[in-house]
Amino acid sequence: MKKFAKVTSLVVCAALAASAMSMAAFAEDATWKIGGIGPLTGAAAAYGQGVMNAMTIAVDEVNKAGGINGYQVEMNFQDDEHDAEKSVNAYNTLKDWGMQILLGTVTSTPCIAVAAETANDNMFQLTPSGSAVDCVANDNAFRVCFSDPTQGTMSAKYIGEHGLAEKVAIIYNSQDVYSSGIYQTFVTEAENQPFEVVSAEAFTEDSKTDFSVQLQAAQDAGADMLFLPIYYTEASLILTQADSMGYAPKFFGVDGMDGILGVEGFDTSLAEGVMLLTPFVASATDEKTTAFVKAYEDAYKDVPNQFAADTYDGVYILKAAIEECGATPDMSVSDLCEALKKGITSITFDGLTGNGTTWDASGEPNKEPKAIVIRNGAYAPMDEEPEATTEAATEAS
């Protein structure tokens, strides 16, 4: 019996030693694996590229500063071409890689498809820019950006409260949840504002190159402003075609139009005076923005857009939420998700896209919107005096 007890004791000790060695190996080698999904090719590539670039910058900064709770961060970004099926395929690729948290997806329709998968897996999902309501319909999903309804409502309020137009026409994509969602709440809020919606014309994925009918309807209705809750590629065509027919209304868009200055072959002078409701402007002079813009320009020789800013904030939001709940990489995906749901709803975040941002269980951020305008070929805050910008540009030239 004593000999058996001695052998048993040796086995137990060996097991404990092996376990200790395993934990030591974990402590030494474990990393956070954060995945990203978005369009790196196709019509919305400027969004995905900006997101991947900003994610890379933020992850590098976090790692150089010691990681999150003492563990380094690995990232893996997959192209979905703004396609729902390809986005789900990208998600499965990231799962095979060992993803623990998803910072994605970038655009709304793919995000909704992937959100169904993350809900099934109970994986924590933070989308930087998926703005459709259903992107955060499940309790494991949160977002950095405003929702489509919020963008529509706040755009109508901003136009009305600042007296920017008397008659507004709308051109929107009826097959896109992002565009149609913003359109619907804009029209609802417009009823409370001192302007009239005189025309609302839709287009579809099969008819998004010729906008002559929609523009003619707006011009015939006497619209002095076009509200465009659409992406930048179609917006550049609308501005070009409006110019060719001699129609020069004001233009007001939302975050999807951020990127219009980078459309290949587009005459950017046509975008002069275009207004956008978006939480980020690269020309802002606060310390956080200038540091981020410099890092982005140094790395990629380009100016970051709002999608990039949302994502940069997204990495640091995840860091703050992980630190708040004391999570570690050895937790299961589901346990980590449960911890992060508590973590993110307990923090207040100051970032590039808003100060004092908080979240509740709905997944929606609570923060104030900002408006920008394109002046002298660059984005500028709406509250900046045009004369000051013009004089500065004149002196610089």
Structure description:
A 7-stranded mixed sheet has the order 7-6-8-9-10-14-15, sandwiched between helices. Strands 2-1-3-4-5 form a 5-stranded parallel sheet, sandwiched between helices. It contains 12 helices and 15 strands. The chain folds into 2 domains: 196 residues, Response regulator (Rossmann fold), CATH 3.40.50.2300; 156 residues, Response regulator (Rossmann fold), CATH 3.40.50.2300. With 397 residues, the chain is α/β, with parallel strands linked by helices. 46% of the residues lie in helices and 18% in strands. Helix 10 packs across helix 11.
Question: Secondary-structure map with pairings?
Answer:
Layout: H1 2-29, E1 31-38, H2 45-64, E2 72-79, H3 84-97, E3 101-104, H4 108-121, E4 124-127, E5 141-143, H5 148-161, E6 167-173, H6 177-190, E7 196-203, H7 212-220, E8 225-228, H8 232-244, E9 250-253, E10 275-277, H9 287-300, H10 306-325, H11 333-344, E11 349-351, E12 354-359, E13 365-366, E14 371-375, E15 378-381, H12 386-396
Parallel strand pairs: 1-2, 1-3, 3-4, 4-5, 6-7, 6-8, 8-9, 9-10
Antiparallel strand pairs: 10-14, 11-12, 12-13, 14-15
CATH superfamily of the largest domain: Response regulator
Order of strands across the main sheet: 7-6-8-9-10-14-15
Oligomer: single chain
Order of helices and strands: HEHEHEHEEHEHEHEHEEHHHEEEEEH
- What number is the mean pLDDT? 90
How many beta-strand segments? Answer: 15
- Put simply, the count of helices is 12
SSE-based structural type: alpha/beta
Uncertain runs: 1-26, 387-397
Number of domains: 2
- The assigned CATH architecture of the largest domain is 3-Layer(aba) Sandwich
Broad shape: globular
Radius of gyration, whole Å:
24 Å
Distance between the termini: 95 Å
In CATH terms, what is the fold-level topology of the largest domain? Rossmann fold
* CATH first level of the largest domain: Alpha Beta
Proportion in helices: 40-55%
Give the DSSP E fraction (strand runs of 2 or more residues).
Answer: 15-25%
* Biggest sheet statistics: 7 strands, mixed
